[in-house]
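#structure-requests
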Amino acid sequence: MGKAAIIKEFGQFLLERKKWWLAPIIIMLLLLGTLIVLTQGSALAPFIYTLF
């Protein structure tokens, strides 16, 4: 099962069950994860980690 299929299935779950309150939580987790991964090797890393 590919990543696109998982995202599609999650979208269908949100539509069927009307669980729209989950969408902002998932989006914020993805954004924070991306921020940590992208700044891991940079000089900004110590400043990012102090936020958490």
